[in-house]
Amino acid sequence: MQRRYFLYTGTGFLGAIAMSCQRSTTANAQGNNGHSTSASTYEIAYSEAEWRQRLTPAQFNVLREHGTEPAYSSPLNEESREGTYTCAGCDLTVFTSATKFDSGTGWPSFYAPIEGAIGTSTDRAFGMVRTEVHCHRCGGHLGHVFEDGPPPTGLRYCMNGVALEFVEA
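Structure (tokenized):
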């Protein structure tokens, strides 16, 4: 029994070290804490200093540093009026209120974006593999997409409210 415990514990420990090294290597190769984005591939690109001037500290953390706002902290989570949601970094319209739903997660959620408005990439941060959603025009991190949403798409675009602006119809 002790030998098996040692074997499982040792294997788990080595796995954690390997995962940490993988994340560190990926982060160093890609920048942005393991997220791959390149300013030169986007229509709108500013220097870090310019982004800091244009955005609030909370917006900069989410949009440019791939942060996550606390659950239930965004007023957009409760927004129910008709309108559109734009990227807080560049004003590109990315979602409509017609696709918004209450996911119960604490973040504004949508079952579909506006066609061509977003891009996705693989997010390997924190030892997980998720699909990151970013603005097609400026590359700003908006949130993640999951396959547990409602019909008709079955997708849940779980967005950070601070990365979006609401425009009433």
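The chain has three helices and nine strands. The radius of gyration is 18 Å.
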